[in-house]
């Protein structure tokens, strides 16, 4: 480990890491923490669905017009940048980081994410963002659809009441006034929508590592993920060394 707490990563292969799970399970904190530790890029795919929802609302695109939604999603330019440790979301040059987090946009994003054409457009963008590796992608379908061959897959879950409590605290800290029962209803409704939609419903990939964060701190979850990624990197390096068809790594490259 480097002095800053970063895990030194093999130069041979930069991994693709998928983190899926329902809202409030702690995916964002874990994904950001893991990306920081590995010095990898963090991609928040939920923010991309939220950005499409925000723009659809701003431009008056009706939710029932699936073709128009798909056209909107394919035409948008969505990117991320980090400033003073905070990840910002840019949509067609506009910083939408805060605007996409309202309860209204949460529900709208969940609705819009059911549209096949929107998913196709965003999955294409996500594959472009992640294909070089050295990336932690967070979402609902990363390990099942976007990168079914991701090097390491996590499915992060927590009890419903705990996820609602976290969401409630997050909104309260931002000064958004809601009551707890409303937040709980919103979480249950979104879970239902995300898990039962026709296209790419949220489910655990068969080969994903399940982590339950109900009674665990965010730091603890990140540590477990780091351990799993390091173990995976080691076993990959051993198999590469054992395989005579794989060229030797250049001198100076480090294994995990
Ligand atoms: O992770 P989030 O709450 O910011 O995601 C917003 C919505 O987008 C959520 O209701 C489900 C949807 N989503 C999705 O369908 N697929 C993804 N890969 C990420 C998010």
Topology readout:
Blueprint: E1 16-20, H1 27-38, E2 41-44, H2 45-58, H3 66-75, E3 78-83, E4 86-91, E5 94-95, H4 103-112, H5 116-130, E6 135-139, H6 142-146, E7 152-157, H7 160-173, H8 180-196, E8 209-212, H9 218-242
Parallel strand pairs: 1-6, 1-7, 2-6, 7-8
Antiparallel strand pairs: 3-4, 4-5
Helix pairs in contact: 1-9, 2-4, 2-5, 3-5, 4-8, 7-8
The structure holds 2'-deoxycytidine-5'-monophosphate (DC).
2'-deoxycytidine-5'-monophosphate binds next to helix 2, helix 4 and helix 8.
Describe the structure.
This protein is α/β, with parallel strands linked by helices and 256 residues long. It has one domain (16-236): 3-Layer(aba) Sandwich (Rossmann fold), CATH 3.40.50. Helix content is 48%, strand content 15%. The chain is built from nine helices and eight strands. The chain has helices at residues 27-38, 45-58, 66-75, 103-112, 116-130, 142-146, 160-173, 180-196, 218-242; strands spanning 16-20, 41-44, 78-83, 86-91, 94-95, 135-139, 152-157, 209-212. It has a five-stranded parallel β-sheet with strand order 2-6-1-7-8, sandwiched between helices. It has a three-stranded antiparallel β-sheet with strand order 3-4-5, covered by helices on one side. The model is unreliable at 249-256 (pLDDT under 50). Bound molecules: 2'-deoxycytidine-5'-monophosphate. Residues 23, 45-47, 49-50, 109-110, 113, 139-141, 190, 194 line the site of 2'-deoxycytidine-5'-monophosphate (DC). 2'-deoxycytidine-5'-monophosphate (DC) binds at residues 23, 45-47, 49-50, 109-110, 113, 139-141, 190, 194.
